[in-house]
Amino acid sequence: MDSVLLIVALGAVAAGFVQGLSGFGFGMVAMSFWAWTLEPRLAAVLAVCGALTGQLVAAATVRRGFDRARLLPFVLGGLVGIPIGVAVLPRLDMDAFKVILGTLLVLWCPAMLMAKQLPRITRGGRVADAVVGLAGGVMGGLGGFTGVLPTLWCTLRGMDKDVQRAIIQNFNLAMLLVTFITYLATGLVTREALPLLAIVVPAMLVPTLLGAKLYHGISEARFRQIVLGMLTASGVAMLVASVPKLLARWGWL
Length: 253
Fold this sequence. Notes:
mainly alpha
């Protein structure tokens, strides 16, 4: 049990720092620690609570670039997607869950690192933004991964660092709040989760503040390299841990 508590705390510290620095990524980083030892639904509850706390802290410290008109389509789409993700969550398979998340990290993060070479998307308007928001809502319902697809989309849109962070930060805040309320209403927040939540919240507060402070002085290229490099490594580690188990289960090993 002590080792589980340590892993939960370490995941919260690392994820809090990344979220404070980038405005997203708490769920992905935390899950790279927690998916090894925690049941998916419990890990999802912890990730959503930690990410929500981090967004509240970050929203109070980083306020540049806010644009309500740009944000609204993402939020409306996300509100539709959250119930879908919550409905799927209880049916998740642990090893398959880690493979999906790890594959997402390994594919998505290097794509972000190469974003300057990718063509910028100018078509689709608010409808396309809403569809991406819906996908982010589904990912949020699955465990607080609301920022993954919207962040890539904003980069492909060619938004600058402050505008992109403002959209993702406030989108995440809205989605995570609704997701956590949904978790409470559906009984996913159990007594088993309460002691771990009491570890996650204080463990990630100071790292989140440090990350937010560093954000103000770091270049766009450098902070992207640091964050996405960490997430790529996390994805590789999860695939190494979970793929052999799935292959053995399917009789391929």
